[in-house]
Structures are given as structure tokens and as C-alpha cells.
């Protein structure tokens, strides 16, 4: 990618303003709760900024353009599914979770299924969230390497420094403030660039020959089951993701929590469409480029220099914010559910330090895994992440919210462990041609159904005879 001084100026100034705003907002963060939950005083805008700032990362921008370059409209599933998931979260999950006054999903599961559920849920969630962080590191490293002509390791170091500045000092408050600013930048630049690409596509005389209606203009261009599987992965994965639930827990009250989820959905659903138009346009104009660089090359080559620089900064900030929010979710679970609950570390400043150190370690490890998988599809990692983080937790969490006390503690823990193990084994050991989400949900449902039947029989045998 060729970048001139005007590009570079727009890029650097935008990043400094956004990250600087987040660091400035961090000056009031003094405690572990202030770091992870922003003092439980967030309004709808800050909640939406935290959620959208994490959800709109490498997958929603670069990954969507990358897949649209090959398949067209079916690349929309990632942002469309994320928005649907957040609407469901706002309707059914946000209020009851916020009313508990807790901080993590594992804490809620412990409340319903006993102390063994907490560490297990933390490990399961952390694995899934970590895979998503890898997905965002992939385009971040590639773009930084291409812009500044760096090797992968050098680009990874730059990325980690930017992520640390974004979230390390202020936690959830920094992520929320920076997320709002980032969304404004992405919306303005992507809409302008996307409309430009769409108009150019409409003017192509051979549009129908280059892009036949199927698969290019079908949501199921990759297959009906693949599309539905992606949608299911996103709904289940997002509902079970600590980072998004953490934003809900940070709300000032339960109604505000639901409103924040709805606002985030309205932001996220349409943001994939400009990237799709750009990906398809680049397929027609430059069919031989590296797909992961489709979006940044379009901004630099086909848009005014100022817009290209600011837009490229928006992409990098979307990647940085996504990794930062995901790493913060893991850091919060490790510090609260493992160090505080299992190791009995209660001092607020110590928990705060553990959270920050864990967040930094997650960034380092995710960058390392991304470097050794640089040529993989971004959205493949994202969908696998959603399936793994939700397959084991979704059904027990849902029952805990809507039917508390119906499922026994032992059955819930067994369901979480075996369904997650089945999902991982299906992908890595047996290489089954089935979405890992389906594998995990089927195993989880079978164990839960068996547990519910056994509990009903046990209750019936203990009830007095008439």
C-alpha cells in the first residue's frame, strides 16, 4: 500500500485524538470496579460505545470486506447477526442480569450452580474470547506492516502499544469513551466510501456478468446452513460474551442496560454494508490483490487523501478497540473469578493490577497466534470463537435467568464441560464437517434434558402419595 504525507497525517492525528480522549477519561479510575465497570454509572451512549467498540473490530470491517471480495452479500451475516443478538440481549437478558449487581457471567452461574461453575465458565469464556482477539489481530498486524513497511513482529509491537494505550489505563471507561469517538469516525468514513463504491458498481455496464445474482447478492451465497450457522453462532456467542455483558453490568440501572444494547444494535447492523460494496468493487477492479487488504487499499487508492487517512485510522481503531475490549473481558474474569474467588485476593488495588497485567498478556499471546496464522480468514476465527464461547454456557445461563432452580448444579457443570470439549474435539480432532456450535449445543441440550428428567423423577418419588 502506498501512503503519502496527507494520508499519514490524517491517520496519526485521528488515532491520537481518540486514544487521547480515552486516556483523559481514565484519570478518575482508581479502583478495580471503576476499571472493569466504570463505577456502574454508564448511560446508554457509553454502554453502546463499549459494546459497539468491541463488536465492530477487524471482523466487522476488514473481515467483512475480505469475505465480500469472494462471496458478496453473505459477508453481511457478521454485523447483521451481531445486531440481532444485541436486540435479543436487550429484550430478554440485559435487565435480569443488571439487577443482580454482579460483575461477570461466571459470578452469575456460581449464584445458580455453585462454586464449581465459576472457574469452568471463566476458562470456557476466555478460550472463546481469546480466539476472537486473534481474529482482530490478523488484520491489525497486516495493515500496520503494509503501511509502515514493517515485519510482522514489528507490526505486532506497534499494535500492542496502541491497544495498551486504548484500554490499559482506564478499562471500561476508556473503552466506552474511545468507542463512541471511533464509531463516529467509522460511520462517516465508511458511509462516504461505501456509497462511492456502490455508485461505481451501479455504473458498471457488465455488472450482472461479473456478479451473478447467486452467490453475490444472496445472504445464503455460502449455503443456507452455513448462513444460519453463522447467525446462530453470533446470537449465542454474543449473549455469552463477558465483554458485552460487562457493559450491561456497568449500566446505571436495568432499563439503561437494555437501552444501551438496543442502541449498539442500531449502530452495528448497517456498518457491514459499506464494506461489502467496497469488497465487491475491488473484486471487479483488482481481482488479484491480497483479500485482507481490500478495504485499506480502497481507502488509500480510490478516496481523497484526507478521507483515506482518517478512514484507515478508523479501521485501526476498530481493531484496537475490539482487541482491547476482549482482553479486558478476560482480565476481569481472571481477576474476579479466579484470583479473587479461588485465591481469596480481596484488595482492590491488587485485583486492579492483576486485571491490567492479564489484559496485557492476552494482547501479547493473541498477537503471537495471529503471526503464525497470518493468511487465514478473519471471519472463520470469529465464527469459531462465537461457537466455542457459547456452546457450553448458553443453555445453562438461559435456564439460570428464566427458570432458576430447575437444573441441578452437577448437571449444569457437566453440561458446560462436556459440550465445550465436544465442540473443540469436533473441530481439532475429528475434523467434522459440522459447525462446532451445533455439536456443543446438541451435547449440552442432551445432558440438560437428561438432568431435568432425572430431577422430575426424583421430585416425584419424594412427593407424598395421595
Mean pLDDT: 85
**Share of β-strand residues:** under 5%
CATH class: Mainly Alpha
Q: Main beta sheet, described?
A: none
Q: Number of helical segments?
A: 22
Give the beta-strand count: 0
Give your account of this protein's structure.
By secondary structure, the chain is an all-alpha fold. It has a single domain, classed as Sodium/glucose cotransporter (Up-down Bundle). The chain contains 22 helices and no strands.
What characteristics describe this protein?
Sodium/glucose cotransporter; mainly alpha; 466 residues; single chain
Describe how the helices and strands are arranged.
Blueprint: H1 5-25, H2 32-37, H3 44-55, H4 59-71, H5 77-99, H6 105-113, H7 117-148, H8 152-168, H9 171-202, H10 207-210, H11 213-216, H12 224-239, H13 242-249, H14 254-268, H15 272-285, H16 294-302, H17 305-340, H18 348-371, H19 378-391, H20 394-402, H21 409-428, H22 436-462
Helix pairs in contact: 1-8, 1-9, 1-17, 3-9, 3-13, 3-14, 3-17, 4-15, 5-12, 5-14, 6-7, 7-8, 7-17, 7-18, 7-19, 7-21, 8-17, 8-18, 9-15, 9-17, 12-19, 13-17, 16-17, 17-18, 19-21, 19-22, 21-22
Short recap of the structure:
The chain is mostly helical. Helix content is 78%, strand content 0%.
Amino acid at each position: 500500500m502506498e501512503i503519502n504525507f496527507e494520508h499519514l497525517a490524517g491517520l496519526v492525528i485521528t488515532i491520537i485524538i481518540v486514544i487521547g480522549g480515552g486516556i483523559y477519561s481514565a484519570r478518575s479510575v482508581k479502583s478495580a470496579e471503576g476499571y472493569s465497570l466504570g463505577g456502574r454509572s454508564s448511560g446508554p451512549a457509553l454502554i453502546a460505545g463499549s459494546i459497539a467498540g468491541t463488536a465492530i473490530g477487524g471482523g466487522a470491517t476488514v473481515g467483512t470486506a475480505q469475505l465480500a471480495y469472494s462471496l458478496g452479500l453473505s459477508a453481511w451475516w457478521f454485523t447483521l447477526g451481531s445486531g440481532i443478538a444485541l436486540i435479543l440481549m436487550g429484550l430478554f437478558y440485559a435487565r435480569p442480569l443488571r439487577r443482580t449487581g454482579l460483575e461477570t457471567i461466571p459470578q452469575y452461574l456460581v449464584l445458580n450452580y455453585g462454586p464449581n461453575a465459576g472457574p469452568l465458565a471463566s476458562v470456557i469464556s476466555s478460550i472463546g474470547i481469546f480466539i476472537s482477539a486473534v481474529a482482530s489481530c490478523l488484520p491489525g498486524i497486516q495493515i500496520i506492516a503494509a503501511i509502515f513497511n514493517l515485519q510482522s513482529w514489528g507490526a505486532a509491537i506497534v499494535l500492542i502499544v496502541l491497544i495498551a494505550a486504548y484500554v490499559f489505563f482506564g478499562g471500561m471507561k476508556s473503552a466506552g469513551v474511545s468507542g463512541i469517538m471511533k464509531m463516529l469516525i467509522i460511520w462517516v468514513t465508511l458511509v462516504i466510501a461505501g456509497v462511492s463504491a456502490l455508485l461505481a458498481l451501479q455504473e458498471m455496464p457488465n455488472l450482472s456478468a461479473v456478479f451473478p445474482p447467486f452467490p453475490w447478492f444472496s445472504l445464503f451465497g455460502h449455503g443456507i446452513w452455513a448462513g444460519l450457522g453463522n447467525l446462530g453462532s453470533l446470537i449465542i456467542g454474543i449473549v455469552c460474551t463477558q465483554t458485552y455483558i460487562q457493559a450491561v453490568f456497568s449500566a446505571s440501572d436495568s432499563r439503561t442496560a437494555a437501552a444501551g444494547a438496543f442502541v449498539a444494535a442500531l449502530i452495528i447492523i448497517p456498518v457491514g454494508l459499506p464494506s461489502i460494496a467496497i469488497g465487491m468493487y475491488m473484486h471487479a477492479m483488482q481481482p488479484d490483490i491480497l483479500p485482507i487488504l481490500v478495504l485499506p487499499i480502497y481507502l488509500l487508492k480510490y478516496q481523497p487523501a484526507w478521507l483515506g487517512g482518517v478512514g484507515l485510522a478508523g479501521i485501526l481503531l476498530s481493531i484496537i478497540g475490539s482487541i482491547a475490549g476482549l482482553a479486558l473481558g478476560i482480565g476481569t474474569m481472571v481477576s474476579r473469578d479466579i484470583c479473587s474467588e479461588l485465591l481469596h485476593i480481596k484488595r482492590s488495588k491488587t485485583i486492579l493490577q492483576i486485571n491490567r497485567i492479564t489484559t496485557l498478556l492476552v494482547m501479547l499471546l493473541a498477537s503471537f497466534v495471529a503471526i503464525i496464522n497470518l493468511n487465514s480468514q478473519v471471519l472463520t476465527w470469529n465464527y469459531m470463537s462465537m461457537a466455542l464461547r457459547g456452546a457450553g454456557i448458553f443453555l445453562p445461563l438461559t435456564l439460570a435467568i428464566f427458570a432458576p432452580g430447575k437444573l441441578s448444579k452437577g448437571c449444569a457443570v457437566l453440561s458446560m464441560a462436556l459440550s465445550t470439549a465436544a465442540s473443540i474435539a469436533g473441530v481439532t480432532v475429528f475434523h467434522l464437517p459440522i459447525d462446532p456450535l451445533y455439536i456443543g449445543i446438541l451435547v449440552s441440550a442432551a445432558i440438560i434434558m437428561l438432568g431435568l428428567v432425572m430431577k422430575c423423577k426424583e421430585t416425584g418419588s419424594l412427593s407424598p402419595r395421595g
